[in-house]
Write a structure and sequence with these properties.
Elements lengths: L9 E3 L8 E3 L6 H9 L4 H7 L5 H15 L3 E5 L16 E5 L10 H11 L2 E4 L3 H9 L6 E5 L5 H14 L1 H6 L1 E6 L2 E6 L4
Parallel strand pairs: 3-4, 3-5, 5-6, 6-7
Antiparallel strand pairs: 1-2, 7-8
Helix pairs in contact: 1-3
Amino acid sequence: MMDNRHFDRISLDPAVMGGKACIRGTRVTIGRIVSQIGAGETIEELLVDYPYIEREDIMQALQFAAWLAQGHTAALVDMNMAYRWAAMPTSRGIEAIHWAEIGPGNAPDNEIMNYARSKRYAVLTNDLDFRTVPALTAASAPSVVQIRNADVRPEKLLDPVVNTLVKFSDDIEKGALVTIAINKVRIHILPIT
């Protein structure tokens, strides 16, 4: 199964269709494509109805819908976290990518947050500033999972972090600020008003 960092034909833009997942920059939502196919329309008929999309767009729309239905949590690991965090176990429904694979190490917070929002990632960080971005902007995404511990090595915290991501996956998918401290987890649903 494809993970969402490979959905290059899917766009999520808050200014287009209310932020719903759409075919690469169009106003054709993934939900529309899946609904049409569910109603019995063929891929060939969709290509006639929407001549500005391609077969690969439709296939990726179906893969994206399947990925969402499986309840995966996807994490964008911040530069201040060890690269090893990107190896979180997919067997427990967690997929992760480190920012070092995507952008520059000195990227501003808003660039990382915008990327996470567009790809439906939760940001995994030890940076206290990331917690303030959704609060100041009243944003409902992306979720921020903040580890508040001096020792942030994966071998020390992987189980509690993965357990938290799995336990609160529905809230994280909708938008939340999650703080993981020693023996304590706090969660605030976004937006914070």
